[in-house]
Write a structure and sequence with these properties.
Layout: E1 5-11, H1 17-28, E2 33-39, H2 51-56, E3 82-85, H3 88-92, E4 103-106, H4 119-142, H5 150-163
Parallel strand pairs: 1-2, 1-3, 3-4
Helix pairs in contact: 1-4
């Protein structure tokens, strides 16, 4: 593989889960994957509770912004290899037509931005979302992507979203 594979993480607001996924993939998949994030109805700002987690990965707050998914469907946008929705709302929406027919999958993660309570309780929800995303991203990174045909890669990427958090062995 000479160029990194481009992954777009989608969420409705592009303020929490997709931002965390972008940061995690860019940290863990450095050199092999380049991640981006966007939303169908972006909030226009990153949730402030996401920043401590992206900083811990070595990024700065200014490395992230809430943006519309349309930015990735126009000429000159990065050629996408994967489009992964991380919220159930975005998974059910009609997405733009992505040039190059990227592999698409849904990895539903509970919305940490919906958490209520003290700052510490909200931080726990953000850490849990990051943990779930890290699990899924680690599974994708472990795949021998260059050795899999498109249909196998599609099936395995989707399976990650369906089975990543199961604690019981599957038969």
């Amino acid at each position: 593989m000479t160029q990194p594979l481009n992954v777009l993480f989608l969420c409705t607001g592009n303020s929490a889960r997709s931002i965390l996924a972008e940061a995690l993939m860019n940290n863990l998949g450095a050199g092999r994957f380049q991640a981006y994030s966007a939303g169908s109805m972006p909030k226009g700002e990153v949730n402030p509770h996401a920043f401590p987690l992206v900083r811990a990965l070595g990024f700065q707050d200014s490395d992230f912004r809430s943006k519309p998914w349309d930015e990735f469907a126009i000429p000159g946008a990065p050629q996408l290899d994967f489009v992964i929705t991380v919220c159930d709302n975005a998974a059910g929406e009609v997405c733009p037509i992505w040039p190059g027919q990227p592999i698409s999958a849904h990895w539903g993660i509970p919305d940490p931005a919906a958490a209520t309570g003290t700052d510490a309780e909200i931080a726990v929800a953000f850490r849990e979302a990051a943990r779930l995303l890290r699990n899924r991203i680690s599974l994708l990174l472990a795949l021998p992507v260059e050795k899999l045909d498109r249909m196998s890669l599609l099936a395995k990427t989707r399976e990650i979203g369906e089975r990543a958090d199961q604690t019981e062995p599957t038969t």
